[in-house]
Amino acid sequence: MSSVAVPAAVMVPAPRRSVDGADVVDVLPGLFVPEVRQWLSTSAGRIAGDGYSWMQAVHWVAGSGLYQPRRHRSHGPRSFGATTVRVAQELAALFPCRPGIEYLVRHTGLSERSVEYHLAMLREAGLLAYIVKGTRVRGEAAQASEFARMIPPEFDAALGIRTVQRDEDAPAYTRAVSGIAEAGRELMAKLAKKAARRVRRPRPKASSKAPAKGARKAAEQGVVTAVSDEVRCTPMQVGTSTVSSAGGTSLPPESKLASGKRKSPTPKKSKAKAGGHRRLNRVGRRHQLARELTQELDWLRGCSVPRIAWVARNLADAGWTVTDVRAWLHFRGEAAKVRRGSGLLAALLAGAETILDTPEKRADAVEQWRGAQEAARRHRIQQVRARTERFEGDWEAPTSRAVQRHVNEAFAAAFGPKPQAAVPDAEALPEVSGVDGLEAAEVAQAREEARQRLMVGDTSLITVAVEAMGRETAEQLYGPDLVRRALQLASGARSSLMAYGRR
Question: Which of 27, 340, 371, 435 is the most buried (most CB within 10 A)?
Fold first, then answer.
């Protein structure tokens, strides 16, 4: 019989009656506190004086079986067990009792939902009451709830504990203990031992299935606090056992000792395990290949792993790896836009296991695929290098045909063969010296055109004028400022430290 819920805790035996009959203990009903009574102002219990006395009440509730969580909800833990006691131990060490959910998760190793379940169980059992309920406001830090450690009235009734209200104006939950019945003293002593012992996490499972089940059951019996007087026979329990553990020890047969060698206590690794890991069966290899494909191929992201495992089942059974599949897909070609990844994969893998039916063929395909990847990588490097050199060069030919025509004319005028000097014909030459024969509108138009070309880096109009007519005449036509700026840009263009113009 499990020591969690024992009849001795539910049906507390009535003590010997006193003269006035004040120490009589009756049968207790089920233990449950509704949500409206889970506040300190509405609670029927009394505040525990310290964490030690409160843990006595916690162990009594755990072993009594009066509180059954599944009677009031269809989810969560099924009983008030060792895990709830571990959570209560953390609360007993806090003063004030204001635990955060993250704090209990960190100290107990439970999930956030499990911690919330066990706190609700402690409140429903009458062991906790809200003083201040925590708040969670968006954009602000979460505030933890503050609890009062309570002792339910059922505990006082079961052990025959008498309480007294010393201050008539104080609330009812401040009443103090004034005595205990004789029948409850022995039970109180057992609860005191349990409250002094710290409940720890259950041990991990054993190597074999049957001992693991028995060990788990024994751990639960040893950790969860029962209040019965039944004989303990589990080594994990604290107490004196009436049955010697050496009495059930059996000696090995003589055939096992004939060689004079003892069996090693260290269990050997199973032959079905490679490197300490369990070998995958056929279905496991299919799912492993499918999982790797969904991680390696971008157009398979989000696809169902079981569906991909069914599509690639023949390849997985033939011993293909994800590298072999990628090499095959390289030769088959991949689509840029994929609507259904599993359907495209099924079309691309059709007949792959019959074409590359040997490991040598698959290895050759992998080498070719890697060579193609290396060639593509080098091509990308060359493209980036050519682009960088093109943009970082001193000068780049213009793309506009009009600009190209002006540039060609400027280059032809600057570097082309100069015409031979002809005998001047007085009748053919205009009677203009410098800008004296030009009107003001023509000079302004020439200067505006030169300024616009100078803004885009074209100095050919001014430099040609300087070379043909001289700097003094060019300054009369275009102005000293434009001529000076044009000559500066022209001299800087011939330097490797300066680049201008459009890209």
Answer: 435
CA-based nearest residue to 60, from 16, 4, 108: 4
Q: In degrees rounded to 5, what are phi and psi of residue 281?
A: -85, -170
Q: What is the DSSP string of 190-220?
A: HHHHHHHSPP-PPPPP-SSHHHHHHHHHHHH
Q: Which pair of structure tokens corresponds to residue 80?
A: 């008030």
Distance CA 444, CA 478 (A): 8
pLDDT of amino acid 211: 47
Domain ranges (residues) in the chain: 7-211, 283-392, 395-416+434-503
For 234, how many CA atoms within 13 A lie in the half-sphere containing its CB? 19
Q: How far apart are CA 87 and CA 77, in angstroms?
A: 13
Please, which residues bridge with residue 163 across strands? Answer: 177
CB 219 within 8 A of CB 236: yes
> What pLDDT does 170 receive?
87
Six-digit token pair at 373?
A: 């990847």
| Other Cβ atoms within 10 Å of 44 Cβ, number | 14
**Is 3 a residue whose pLDDT tops 50?**
no
Q: Give CA angle at 355 (354, 361), nearest 5°.
A: 120
The Cα–Cα gap between 107 and 84 comes to 13
pLDDT digits over 434-459, tens only? 466 677 888 888 888 888 888 877 88
Residues 6+ apart with CB under 8 A from 274: none
Q: Does this model's pTM top 0.85?
A: no
- C-alpha distances out from residue 310 to 339, 357, 500, 502, Å: 19, 19, 62, 58
* Cα–Cα distance measured from residue 149 to residue 135, given in angstroms and rounded to the nearest whole number: 20
Say how many residues make up the chain.
Answer: 503
* pLDDT in the model for residue 475: 85
pLDDT tens profile 122-133: 999 999 999 988
The residues with which 147 forms a beta bridge, in sequence order, are 130
The structure tokens listed for 217 are 């059951």
Residue 295: what residue type?
Q
SS3 (DSSP) at 102 = helix
Instruction: Give Cβ neighbours of residue 63 (< 8 Å, ≥ 6 apart).
Output: 3, 4, 5, 6, 9, 224, 225, 226, 227, 228
Residues 11, 208: Cα–Cα separation, whole Å: 38
**Would the pLDDT of 489 be above 70?**
yes
84-112 per-position pLDDT tens digit: 999 999 999 888 888 888 899 998 889 99
Quickly list DSSP for 318-387.
TT--HHHHHHHHHHH---SS-S-HHHHHHHHTTTHHHHS-SHHHHHHHHHHHHHHHHHHHHHHHHHHHHH
